[in-house]
Amino acid sequence: MKRVTLNEIFNHPITQKYLQRSGIHHAVSTAEQSVTLAEQQGVDLDLAAKSALLHDIGHYEWYKDGKWDYEEYRKHDIHAIKGAERSHKLLIRLGENKERAKTISIAILLHTDSYLPFSIESMRTPLHDVVFRADEMEELPGGAHHYVEMDTGEANERLARLEERILQNQDPKRSIS
Ligand SMILES: [Fe+2]
């Protein structure tokens, strides 16, 4: 089965449409951070990068009078659920291995528990923990991390470099969880 690259995922129209809402900069930086943590933790680098790149793809636009409405967002947000579904559809369409597509989709579903009525902190797998912590490290006060800009050219260059790093450092024997 062919390898689906980070650049292929990023340049797909579904990603381009939905990733703009939560910000390309946040997605790319979280993917880089996630690979760094995965290297330290012995987690599969490819899964960590793809899960982090797509973790916020489920965001809805919570705008009211031109501004992000955080109260509405906190009450009604299900971006992790939508992101899990959207990313799964996208990955399968691109030809990703089905087992890996499911693993990535679940990591996106569980990258936060802010939308759940209970905490999942003690139940995270090493992959879930890596994506959760990378996201947290990239967070800025007031959700400002969603507004830092990055053009498509820079995003593609950084993702190509990250892809190289994954190919060089990936240990094929590492677990996928
Ligand atoms: Fe995020």
TrEMBL record:
Protein name (record): HD domain-containing protein
Domain named HD: residues: 23-140
NCBIfam families to which the protein is assigned, alphabetical: HDIG
Alphabetical list of Pfam families matching this protein: HD
Lineage: Bacteria, Bacillati, Bacillota, Bacilli, Bacillales
Coiled-coil annotated residue ranges, if any: none
Gene3D superfamilies xrefs: Hypothetical protein af1432
Native source species: Alkalibacillus salilacus
Listed CDD domains: HDc
PROSITE patterns cross-referenced by the UniProt entry: HD (PS51831)
InterPro entries with a match to the protein in the record: HD/PDEase_dom, HD_domain, HDIG_dom
